[in-house]
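Researcher: I need the complex structure. Ligand is adenosine monophosphate. Inputs:
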Amino acid sequence: MDNSHKILEATIANYDHCADLLRADEVIGVPTETVYGLAGNALNESSVRKIFDVKGRPLIDPLIVHFSNIDSAEAHIAVNQSARKLAAAFWPGPLTMVVPKRATIPDLVTAGLSSVAIRVPQHPVFREILKRLDFPLAAPSANPFGYVSPTQASHVAHTLGNRIEAVLDGGPSNFGLESTIIDLRASEAPAILRHGPITEDQISKTLGIPLSTHIETAADDTSAQTAPGMLTQHYSPSAKVTLLEHGAINSNLADKTSALICNQKPEWYSKQCNVFWLSESGNLNEIAHNLFALIQRLDQQNYKHLWIELTLESGIGQAINDRLRRAAAKIT
Ligand code: AMP
Ligand code: MG
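Model: Output:
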């Protein structure tokens, strides 16, 4: 079914309407600078349950809670020195911090953990909504669990439109990849849980200490996680995904049913079918911005097999490669 009528323009009347829906414990699609989110009242169990239901997300996978500023977060979390430093440097923006929670945050949000993941987002449309509410918003990516994350309102309408009332349109997500997650439960031993647009180097320089990395890559994603991290298989299109080392692209791989996705326009390109690139010049920010949208477009065109070139492993390239490896992982 075509659900494009559920996409709402970013107007004052629609902000007010969306705020009303959220006050009535509904969940809606909202734009963020990372990817589109499926937002609901983080302090209300029935809204939070709807988020898990609509996405088909397992209850062991905790949600990120979004606030309009760090002051409004303080009633619900314990802010430590490291969190304050990182907030001053990167908020509003694509950085999520895991910190100790207070009792006001329902256990359902955090999969029973005593910590909560929080973020102050930058997208002006999302901020307009937060400004109208006296509660924070839990908002995982607005896609069916395990599928590629949405970076445009149309992606949300296409995959979840039957199950939600509205998607606010804020244009294509600027970064196009989910936020960086940093674990600050032990203030003196910060650890990266998920790579993202804010790099390890930027965080480590701001804190003045090296970081450890605790990214979940275990194959056993079915048992309850004591310290939930990322699930191994995620961001997966219906098409089979095979990764190619950076620079190892080969024009023979693309045929009628398979597509080749390169970082940049290949030197050998001369109108071959089914060859695509994510950035004219191989710019990593452009690659991140375009990645999920291109994968969704090719998936909707029913390609059976996507050959995708990994990027260089520097800066945001670490986050891009992380998403590609998860998209390619198949758990049997
Ligand atoms: P998303 O899938 O973008 O909604 O991001 C949520 C991810 O944040 C989860 O899958 C976890 O990896 C991580 N996360 C959320 N809350 C916590 C927490 N309290 N402790 C550790 N990781 C968390
Ligand atoms: Mg997600």
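Model: Summary of the prediction. The CA atoms of residues 3 and 161 lie 5 Å apart.
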